[in-house]
Amino acid sequence: RERADLLAAVPRGLWLGGEQVPATGGGAFPVHDPATGAVLTEVADATAADGAHALDAAAAAQPGWAATPARQRAEILRRAWELINARRDDFAMLMTLEMGKPLAESYGEVTYGGEFLRWFAEEAVRINGRYTHSPSGAGRILVTKQPVGPALAITPWNFPLAMGTRKIAPAFAAGCTMVVKPAAETPLTMLLLGEIFAEAGLPSGVLSILPTARAARLTDPLFADARLRKVTFTGSTAIGKILLAQSASRVLRTSMELGGNAPFVVFADADLDAALDGALAAKMRNTGEACTAANRFHVDNAVRAEFTDRFTERMRALKIGAGHLDGVQVGPLISEEQRDSVAELVADAVSKGARITTGGARVSGSGYFYEPTVLADVPAEARILREEVFGPVAAITGFDGEAAGVAAANATEFGLAAYIYTTDLDRALRVAESVESGMVGINRGIISDVAAPFGGIKESGLGREAGSEGIEEYLETKYIALP
Ligand code: ADP
């Protein structure tokens, strides 16, 4: 399908309670192509009143949805998964257009993002409780699970489909209704998903999708509304802290997938070929715009020079360009601000003594491209070792011995993902257990998996998505006392 035809066919109104409605009082806001900076289209901007209507619909639909047989909810999810796959080309092109990632990666996200619907279709029918006796013999204990209730999902732009489906699918599987506020940069993918769910037979009211360029105007009143029971957020730690404070006023259930600062630790005994493949994947997937992206490379000094040289070659060879072009491996960053922040972290590291071995500059011309960059000899005081770069920049620093490698990995307030390369099994397990993060990859650069619990510790968040754990975020536990 031609890009113009695709854009013309994508819903651009609000998705309110199961149908598309045109912009109300909020007008519209533009969506940009980060590869050119040009406006792709405009999307309706949801107001606080739209938010209230969406929550009206979610609250009204909640009892019926919770009472809908799990098998029926599962089959809607399963149908939606099939429909996403039937429209793979449209979803992939749309993500490349509004987010910029290379088309091959967009196809990867269609598969990965779609999988949450299939996975949670399978989990929906396995929500179990238990029956036991009080130790005193005085009574019986019945434990059951119930949906939390209407939930608000706030999602980021970096995975326009998967960050939605990873929340929507477990919510629906558990029997919760949901209002989604997608990132203003990438609302089109989520709006198309709304259409998919309608086609899959989702009852009206269960899902609303409200794009807006003014997030707080829409969501602040929702946090104050007693009908909302749950907030699930993926985004920065700074915004997550604000939303946690807002949630506190009504003791909302929260799931928070926040920032990361993933260490990639290469021990002296590592298989360097494997480590280089893993490093490239962990750094460059999604052009570095992933919260699990390797942010800092801690390499044992025994192999540091070789790793740096060979990684530099690999980074230099990557093809940069608009995501829909053949063979492109590195797309644009999402915005000029994002590119400026990447450039600033590079400048800071260089001013403190880091050495650029490749890249280190914006790509001239239109679009928000930044060269794949390797910084060697990065000193401890460089900001890039502490802050998430969210771009195609690898900072390499050395250490001596296992204890120093672990200490370096843990020197951060974040704790989302960590990557370890070693061929020593004892060391791999020892280090994996000592690393302070919710997820650890051993000799693997890509760890996300629909069947595994995704989430962080420390300031990287609360709760887990996906896996068999993911549905728990949308369930309450009820104890029923029996004689
Ligand atoms: P990123 O750096 O990935 O854009 P943010 O944390 O700024 O991360 O944004 C993630 C999501 O949170 C986006 O959908 C954004 O619109 C939303 N958001 C940002 N600020 C607020 C806020 N004050 N209230 C509610 N949502 C917000």
From TrEMBL:
Keywords assigned: Oxidoreductase
Protein name stated in the entry: NAD-dependent succinate-semialdehyde dehydrogenase
Domain of life: Bacteria
GO biological process: one example: gamma-aminobutyric acid catabolic process
Organism: Nocardia panacis
Alphabetical list of Pfam families matching this protein: Aldedh
One GO MF term attached to the UniProt entry: succinate-semialdehyde dehydrogenase (NAD+) activity
Keyword Ribosomal protein: no
